Fold this protein.
Amino acid sequence: MKIEDALQEEQSIENTQPRNVYYALDEQGNYRQVLAAGCRAKHDALSLTWECISKEAETIRQEVLAGKKSPLAYHIRMCLLDIPLLAAYTGLPKKTIKKHLDAKAFLQLDASILKKYADAMHITEEELKSV
């Protein structure tokens, strides 16, 4: 890619404007670093990914509202976590986290466990309890 071909589109995911380093040929044929907002393919792939995540999260949200799952399940999805990773962040056993995905079990959690989850996801305890 040549420097003048490096895409400088201002579109980006979630209204942020990340800058990426690309390597492009200058007029003398030497490679140089070029800052660019990104390319269309990357933007489209990330947009599709976030669309899929949002759909999955909405499905989980509806299950939470129906009392089938706990809000923890929704926040795990929104934070792009899985049970093993959340277990590593919180120090809680995976089996315990799986149990807390049940709405009834989640309602019985004490403040210290809620704090561990909230801290791991960088949200407040009140946010953790809602969807």
